[in-house]
């Protein structure tokens, strides 16, 4: 059985955040280290669109978190926590956050993307030209890079798609080059 089928069975074929039944898809909760059923949720296009693009966030849509924040699945709780933190200036999300409890490991995962931190505390990843890098961006290497621990050399001009950010160090990102997951220093990449 595939990941989509597992999530459909787990969720009863509904969005695990808002309960919608249309346009459902798998959402891997960043940073994508666990993946699979435990690191993913089944979400509707509305929820996923607003998670990935904060400018489109409709706070009334997220009142559904009043129910979904109590999910037994960590991936759902992590996204609920992040969205409540993003919206806490509205007032009502702060009340829900005050009631919510996450195990230490789950809370660490929830905080991994910097959601809930003040802007001055967030780690910002920038490419060689100073452009801000986000999870899922595509970059191109600006010089040949020797990959530590292997004989591989990542060539200048190689595109690295769907990067993930290291939330502890602003100079590190991760991506796949020739099928191998590697850490890349941001000063050697240019955002596409």
Automatic annotation (TrEMBL):
Annotated SUPFAM superfamilies: Prokaryotic SH3-related domain (SSF82057)
A Pfam match: YjdM
Boundaries of every PhnA protein N-terminal proteobacterial domain copy: 6-52
Entry-linked InterPro entries: PhnaA_N_proteobac, YjdM_C
Domain of life, source organism: Bacteria
Stored PANTHER family: PROTEIN YJDM, PROTEIN YJDM-RELATED
Name of the protein: PhnA protein
Protein source organism: Flagellimonas lutimaris
